[in-house]
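Translate sequence into structure tokens.
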Amino acid sequence: MKLLSSFIIPEAVVRNPHASLFVLFISAFTLFALTGEDNDLIRPRRKKSLFKRIFHVFGEDESPTLDVQGVVEGTALAAMAEEQDPAAIQEALEKLVKQLEQELCNERQDKERMHESMKKEEMLRQEAEEDLELVKQELNRQVQLYRVHMREEREKVIALEKELQGQSIHTQQLEAMLQLRDGQIEELEESLRQAADQEKGRSATQLNGEGSGSPSPNSSRSADKKRVFTIM
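Result follows.
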């Protein structure tokens, strides 16, 4: 722990999780490279296995772009200044590996949670699109029904207008017939007045010269009646 506490890690590295993993890997690899070759207590086979573990945990697809030259130099100086204790270095490396594994596990969990969140958002988006499509279909159906209703109402209005036009023509015909009958009535009244005047004239003539051989009043009245019926 004393060795780990002496590592020089810039503040900018801590803010970037990918750079932090890379720095931890560089620190572990630097410590192991400085102390592992000249020490018989650390066997090459175990050194290779530990390197593979670190490299496997770190992952081949990770490629941090942060400049870590200062971190590597600080780590090297700290390792050189510390007492060369193989057991402490081995323990520090093991702790670094565990920390790397834990951080990668946390990152993997974060990615999984993000993936689940994205899946839920996609499902919600699809549901919203389906609801919107249903609303569009319902609106289209309502519009079609309204158009059909308006077409029926327009046809009713056209039929009513035609009916009103027919009734207007019939009314004009009735008015013409009434005017014709009014004229006939006026002619009839005029004929009746003339017949009445003629009847008065005959009555006066008959009173003045009775028995002078003039035609009989009955025959004249019958002739006037025939004339009146002919006019009607």
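Note: The CA atoms of residues 150 and 156 lie 10 Å apart.
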